[in-house]
Amino acid sequence: MKELMEKIEALVAEFNKDASAQIENGNKAAGTRARKASLEIEKAMKEFRKASLEASKQ
């Protein structure tokens, strides 16, 4: 679970960097990277939900 949290934190940091570059500088490529990162965050959050439910059952 700790590894999953670290993965999520890294994905969110990457998203924030790219989203900021798109908003502040109008960088279209950064927008594409931010959208990709958001999909990866979504997958990781689903994994976290599953792991969290399993941990609460124990």
Structure write-up:
The chain is an all-alpha fold and 58 residues long. The chain has one domain. It is built from 2 helices and no strands. The longest helix has 30 residues. The mean pLDDT is 95.
Quick rundown:
This protein has helices spanning 2-25, 28-57.
What keyword list fits this structure?
single chain, 58 residues, mainly alpha, 0% strand, elongated
The termini sit apart by: 14 Å
Range of strand content: under 5%
User: How would the global form be characterised?
Assistant: elongated
Q: What is the tally of beta strands?
A: 0
Helix content: over 70%
Average pLDDT across residues? Answer: 95
Structural class of the helices, strands and pairings? mainly alpha
Number of helices: 2
Q: How many separate domains make up the residues?
A: 1
| Alpha-carbon Rg, integer | 14 Å
| Sheet of most strands | none
Order of helices and strands: HH
Q: Which regions have little confidence, pLDDT < 50, spanning 5+ residues?
A: none
Question: Helices and strands in order, then pairings?
Answer:
Blueprint: H1 2-25, H2 28-57
Helix pairs in contact: 1-2
